[in-house]
Write a structure and sequence with these properties.
Chain lengths: ~130, ~600
């Protein structure tokens, strides 16, 4: 079994607290633009937010030429020291969840730490255990 | 990058006449004395708007400012403040907006945008971190708020935050509003009218750099504690589902719901337009602003002529001013008008007040048949409300007159219409009928932008301590006028405190983690008192003969009884009005005409207003 961040409902209110927790926790910066969660408003119609999170499929690790993305405690984690910023994983990611920021060459990837989960006021986020068939 | 923690550290000054801009460092002294948001807006407007400058001329400034707490990991940090010399009143004008603008502005490294001059042709401003460009608005001019926001997001990217005016702002309707995030508004005092006069259709913002906080680990830890506290409060679960409209029933129970142009304080159909009706009948999503755990935005869908129409709201003020005040007793009708006014870029508070004034003019035969094309205009009739709304936005026929607001319209219409023009200082009164609520009446009389409730929502105090009592009411109003606008200075929303009983002083606990500076709550409130006196001095500076007569309530409140409901037969007695103002001026350290004394101004460090 391996953990993954998942969304449980279409009730996101767009507050972006998950992104703030993510950036503060991983970069020590109050900067929502450095989060490993994507939130996109679909307005005026149909009137909801699309929340994108990494499903830990491992495609990024398969294409990484320097093996900078490795399995740790069941989740695929980017080692920023090893990463060369080549962008192969960004292009290969089927879910569009290898995030980028102009201030850093390496992509930003969810490590399924779950720090954001308790601070989602709408209970949209959870840590799910993926059963490998 | 500035070493001021908690701030973007820079001021963006855009000269629309020249199409040029400058980036200036934020003055640390201003940050210390005025904190941010509303404080910066008031300070900059006072020093930069030339005395008597035409509100719609190039010399007026449109200032928008985030606060030191905006955009940070703490509850409801999404508030941006905007201000100008108001074209609606001629005095100090400001408005506040949630959504994501304040966060985005600070992520781009700015606290303040100052717009001066006027563009030669319709334009929109793009701020993308350090890249600032003024672009031809082309066929965006004339488009509705929602189409404009959609188009700019398509053109620039979904991650841009957009603030736009609608056709009403372009036509210089005096109560035009700025729209953002498909349903958030900076509604009051005609700030969007100033934007229209500057021929600025929209501002698009994107910031990626973030801003420095003094102690990120402490922000994270303290923020987490604050959120966990809110999650544990009863109001978190009870208030959030209905948002501000949840209060509709209570306001009717206490006979304070403005109905049919403030003729009465009780609307018989209120249950059909309140928070429960919204949730049960038209809600799509609970939509919130940046950093908000208690989303009051009720994103709704209705059907109009077989087509889906989406609108954020109605929130309480729209329920009151379009619902009760125009006599519309169906939530779908209220939401329909809400959607039309939002798209036209018209404040639903003043809009509802002006339309209701027009309906009463029609009822009393003050309009000529040619004014209305022979059309009957009636309270409770959706078509009448929509027809007036569209005439106003287009400034067609009597719409041109009504677009000036009820004070100016009544002055030209005559026929005794000034007796039921419900405004203070030229700004239409919002959603509370205060004839049997002296503190709330005083709040409206002394609000520094005109007839607005949000500086001192004192009606709960009236209900708690006695509706006939006058003693102590001025003191409570003053206390609220410092406390509530302080949130607008810090750049955060006051709803966690007002609606779910989160202790406001908690924001002083996280202030040093964000800014690196320890300030007591009392010290922060002192900054708020400074700003309250400064905005009063803005009126003194720009409005000849400004004084006590400007603080008087609408004639209806002292001349007519409330017609029905729980407060039937009540009115404000003129001696009560005089006593409220006497108490208020004395406690504030102002003279009997309502002018701050030199001693008070010096005590607050406002010596510069004395010259």
């Amino acid at each position: 079994m391996s953990p993954t961040l998942a969304t449980t409902a279409q009730a996101c209110s767009g507050c972006r607290l998950c992104q703030l927790v993510c950036a503060l926790d991983h970069f020590g910066e109050n900067n929502v633009k450095k989060a490993a969660i994507g939130i996109r408003g679909l307005f005026p119609a149909p009137g909801r937010y699309d929340v994108r999170v990494c499903v830990q499929c491992g495609t990024c690790a398969e294409v990484c030429p320097v093996e900078a993305i490795r399995l740790r405690h069941g989740a695929w984690v980017l080692d920023r020291e090893l990463c060369t910023g080549c962008g192969a994983c960004i292009a290969a990611c089927p879910w569009g969840v290898m995030f980028t920021h102009p201030g850093t060459p390496e992509p930003i990837k969810c490590d399924a730490c779950g720090e954001c989960v308790p601070y989602c006021p709408r209970n949209v986020l959870c840590i799910a255990e993926v059963v490998q068939e | 990058m500035s070493d001021l923690m908690g701030y973007g550290g820079r001021v963006l000054r855009v000269d629309l006449s020249r199409g040029s801009h400058k980036i200036e460092p934020l003055d640390p002294r201003m940050a210390s004395d005025y904190l941010g948001g509303r404080g910066f807006v008031a300070r900059i407007l006072y020093s930069e708007v030339p005395k008597g400058a035409d509100p719609l001329g190039p010399e007026n400034r449109l200032v928008m400012a985030a606060g030191p707490l905006s955009g940070s990991f703490l509850p409801c940090s999404g508030k941006l403040h905007l201000g100008a010399r108001s074209p609606a009143t001629g005095g100090y004008g400001d408005a506040n907006i949630g959504g994501h603008l304040a966060m985005e502005l600070k992520h781009a490294g700015y606290d303040v945008i100052i717009l001066e001059g006027a563009a030669a042709k319709p334009s929109y401003l793009v701020i993308d971190d350090d890249r600032v460009t003024l672009n031809d608005a082309g066929d965006l001019w004339g488009q509705g708020s929602f189409a404009t926001e959609s188009r700019l997001k398509e053109l620039l990217g979904e991650d841009f935050q957009i603030a736009t005016i609608g056709p009403a702002g372009e036509k210089l309707v005096k109560f035009a509003c700025i729209t953002h995030d498909f349903g958030r508004q900076a509604g009051r005092a005609g700030i969007a009218t100033v934007m229209g006069a500057k021929r600025l259709k929209a501002i698009a913002l994107r910031g990626t750099r973030g801003f420095p906080v003094a102690d990120p680990a402490a922000v994270l830890a303290t923020g987490k504690t604050m959120f966990r506290t809110i999650f544990g409060l009863p109001g978190f679960r009870e208030w959030t589902p209905y948002g501000t409209a949840g209060i509709t029933e209570w306001v009717n129970q206490v006979g304070a719901f403005p109905t049919r142009n403030f003729q009465t304080g009780f609307f018989e159909d209120h249950a059909a337009i309140g928070g429960k009706a919204i949730r049960d009948r038209i809600l799509v999503l609970d939509k919130g602003c940046f950093g908000c755990p208690i989303p009051c935005g009720k994103y709704c869908r209705i059907e109009v002529d077989g087509e889906e129409v989406f609108v954020e709201g109605p929130e309480y003020e729209t329920v009151a001013m379009i619902g009760g005040n125009c006599g519309l007793g169906q939530i779908e009708a209220v939401a329909h008008v809400n959607a039309v006014m939002d798209d036209l870029g018209m404040d639903t508070i003043s809009g509802g007040n002006v339309v209701a004034f027009a309906l009463e003019c029609a009822e009393r035969g003050i309009f000529k048949p040619s004014d209305t094309g022979g059309r009957p205009l009636r309270f409770g009739d959706l078509d009448s409300v929509l027809w007036l709304t569209r005439r106003i936005a287009a400034r067609e026929g009597i719409g041109d007159l009504l677009a000036e607001g009820v004070k100016a319209a009544a002055a030209r219409l005559g026929g005794g219409s000034d007796r039921f023009a419900i405004h203070v200082k030229g700004l239409e009164v919002s959603g509370y009928e205060p004839r049997h609520a002296p503190a709330m009446a005083l709040a409206y009389m002394t609000c520094d932008v005109g007839g607005h409730h949000n500086r001192a929502w004192a009606i709960t105090h009236d209900v708690a301590v006695g509706r006939d009592r006058v003693e102590g009411k001025a003191a409570r109003v003053i206390e609220l006028q410092h406390l509530r606008p302080l949130f607008d200075m810090l750049g955060v929303c006051r709803f966690p405190w007002v609606e779910v009983e989160f202790p406001p002083e908690t924001y002083a606990d996280i202030f040093p983690a964000v800014t690196g500076v320890k300030r007591s709550w009392a010290d922060l409130l002192r900054c708020s008192e400074r700003v309250w006196n400064l905005t009063r001095m803005f009126w003194v500076r720009h409005v000849p003969e400004f004084g006590r007569s400007w603080d008087l309530p609408p004639a209806r409140w002292t001349e007519e009884d409330i017609a029905s409901g729980p407060t039937q037969g009540k009115r404000l007695a003129p001696p009560t009005v005089a006593r409220l103002l006497d108490d208020y001026y004395r406690l504030r350290g102002w003279d009997e005409h309502g002018i701050p004394t030199p001693a008070k101004l010096k005590e607050l460090g406002l010596d510069y207003t004395l010259t």
